[in-house]
Design brief:
The complex is a heterodimer of chains A (278) and B (299).
Chain A lengths: L1 H35 L3 H7 L12 H7 L3 H32 L5 H13 L6 H10 L5 H26 L3 H8 L4 H12 L1 H17 L2 H6 L8 H11 L4 H36 L1
Chain B lengths: L1 H37 L1 E2 L7 E2 L3 H9 L1 H34 L4 H8 L1 H4 L2 H12 L7 H8 L15 H25 L4 H9 L4 H29 L3 H7 L9 H10 L3 H33 L5
Antiparallel strand pairs in B: 1-2
Helix pairs in contact in B: 1-13, 2-13, 3-8, 3-10, 6-11, 8-10, 10-13, 12-13
The chains are: A mainly alpha (278), B mainly alpha (299).
Chain lengths: 278, 299
């Protein structure tokens, strides 16, 4: 009996602690969504504490059109899609080669890629920005190329460890059937590492979507800005209206939260893999 | 035969080539370019003048703002190391024992690290900044009858502490996930056999959990230091530097680049990078010594 009570008390204490921290995470986000569904006058009365019933949807069209968030959003989707596509192709080719094929200095080159993950470069964006300026690449393609580089090392490492675990038999069979190396990479190896590809895609999508520093340096034209830079611009232009700002923050946060809820296993795998290498 | 194998070597190498080209242009070259730029003055694009070590001299000896930005970064890092990581460790210990609801908490805690620094920064600014009506959080505190807790959160005296706490709030979920992954690798049999030998929970924690978690804790410490000292976007969104009061090293580098003082920016980057590498190595050394003391064999 004593043991049972003690157990229940401990459970209650643990859950209260966890729940209160969980609430501190969730509450500001729910508040943000709630405020985005209010009118500014309504918001001034209760600072977003009362539920927005009935919801007022007017802030969203205003944020999207007047706040130009629609443009920023489309830009972000574009940058993220192209960058991640590039990372997947380039890094899986390289990882396949590191894992399966032979060429001189293979291990040295792989080691350099790994070392890049461990050396902190706090001012890394400075020379990259200057270089892009000199190459006349301060535009979309320059940004995509620079962002691709940021995801390469970890993606190559992740995919290589997966390729290393694959049995050789399937590839041998394909080779006997007359498949060349590129064909084996595309038809045999890539389909077998789909779980790792999912991790690479999701993890890099988050990184590109959330990137701010380089984008803010490169894109001074509004029509090129991705969402993160656009949000800062938007805030600088419009400081007073909380409801409008909340709507724009919600627009930026919702896709990430949905992606996260759908793919949280992959994201957490990417984070832990990144941490272990680091 | 020989020719064939050379050709084959080249085909094999061509698989790595795209990655290697991008990596060389955007990582290797900039890496050495940083050092070269740090010996020069100008905007880096049109004007470039060799000045030797003057930039380093300027940063280390004359630039008080650089040292205060390092102080600010260190202040936030110390909060992250203690408050954020202890909180994350406690949460991980709590969730580790829960089989049914553990996953729910894990999903919730990790939402904040997934969201961008700009979103978190602007959202917290919205809550904390005291405009008309004294700010949103202060309004809530008044409503709850806790009016005496109301503060000017982003005002001069408190802004650095507020920034540190917001940083911890955004970051603890990340530390939590890694620590939890570490806890779950500890085999249950160890606890069972300890309990059979009559050990209580405290003894279990200090004799099993803590020693076995040392490598993971060391890893989290190093990554916290690296991450927090290089944090920047969230702080920019939250306080815009607050007139230097929350200026962190990378913000200073960023502003120097914007102000066409590329040489200074690079010199600061090199100094900060050297500090971070040194600190990481010291941490690794300490962790190794501690593990030897506790006799934990694994890696």
């Amino acid at each position: 009996m004593y043991y049972q009570t003690k157990k229940v008390v401990i459970l209650i204490v643990v859950h209260t602690f966890l729940m209160s921290v969980a609430l501190s995470c969730i509450f500001p986000l729910l508040w943000m969504v709630n405020v985005s569904l209010k009118t500014e006058v309504d918001f001034r009365n209760d600072m977003g504490l009362k539920l927005a019933i009935p919801p007022y949807w007017g802030n969203y069209p205003r944020a999207l059109i007047e706040g130009k968030l629609l443009f920023y959003f489309i830009n972000s989707v574009f940058y993220t899609f192209i960058t991640v596509l590039g990372i997947v192709i380039v890094s899986s080719l390289a990882a396949f080669s590191f894992s399966r094929l032979k060429f001189p200095f293979k291990n040295v080159i792989f080691f350099i890629f790994l070392a890049a993950m461990m050396i902190p470069l706090p001012a890394g964006f400075v020379p990259v920005y200057i270089l892009l300026n000199k190459l006349h690449l301060v535009n979309r393609s320059g940004y995509v190329l620079a962002m691709m580089n940021m995801g390469l090392s970890l993606s190559i490492y992740l995919l290589k460890t997966f390729f290393d675990q694959l049995p050789h038999d399937l590839e041998d069979a394909a080779r006997i059937d007359g498949c060349n190396k590129l064909g084996i990479w595309w038809n045999v190896a890539l389909p077998l590492v789909k779980p790792a590809l999912a991790v690479v895609i999701v993890f890099n999508s988050l990184n590109v979507w959330n990137e701010f520093v380089l984008a803010s340096l490169m894109f001074t034209e509004e029509k090129l800005m991705p969402l993160q830079v656009g949000l800062m611009e938007f805030y600088n232009r419009n400081i007073v209206e909380h409801t409008l700002l909340s709507a724009s923050l919600t627009i930026a946060a919702i896709p990430i939260i949905l992606l996260y809820l759908r793919m949280q296993r992959q994201i957490i795998k990417g984070i832990t893999a990144g941490a272990i290498v680091g | 035969m020989n020719k064939f194998s050379l050709r084959e070597k080249f085909t094999n190498f061509s698989f790595v080539l795209p990655a290697l080209i991008i990596f060389s242009i955007f990582y290797l070259y900039p890496f050495f370019y940083t050092f070269w730029l740090s010996f020069h003055k100008g905007d880096g694009i049109f004007i470039l003048e060799f000045v030797g070590l003057a930039n380093f001299k300027e940063v280390i000896i004359f630039d008080k703002d650089w040292w205060s930005s390092l102080y600010n970064g260190t202040f936030i890092t110390l909060w992250a190391l203690t408050f954020q990581n202890i909180l994350a460790f406690m949460l991980a210990l709590g969730v580790d024992k829960l089989t049914k609801t553990g996953k729910f908490y894990r999903v919730i805690f990790f939402i904040l690290p997934v969201l961008s620094e700009i979103i978190i920064g602007l959202l917290m600014r919205e809550l904390l900044v005291s405009g008309q009506g004294g700010g949103v959080l202060n309004f809530w505190l008044n409503r709850l009858g806790l009016g005496y807790l109301a503060r000017d959160w982003l005002g001069k005296e408190r802004v650095l502490l507020t920034t540190a706490l917001v940083h911890c709030w955004k970051g603890f979920g990340w530390a939590f996930v890694i620590l939890l992954a570490g806890l779950q690798t500890i085999p249950e049999q160890l606890y069972e056999s300890a309990r059979i030998d009559g050990a209580n929970s405290f003894q279990c924690f200090f004799k099993i959990t803590l020693p076995l978690m040392l490598p993971v804790v060391a890893l989290v410490f190093i990554l916290t230091i690296l991450g927090t000292m290089q944090a920047f976007a969230m702080i920019l969104a939250l306080t815009r530097g607050a007139g230097g009061l929350t200026e962190v090293p990378v913000m200073r580098i960023y502003n120097h680049l914007r102000g066409n003082q590329v040489g200074l920016a690079c010199a600061e980057g090199i100094i900060l990078g050297a500090i971070l590498i040194t600190v990481s190595f010291i941490m690794m050394y300490i962790s190794k010594k501690l593990r030897e003391k506790y006799g934990v064999l694994s890696n």
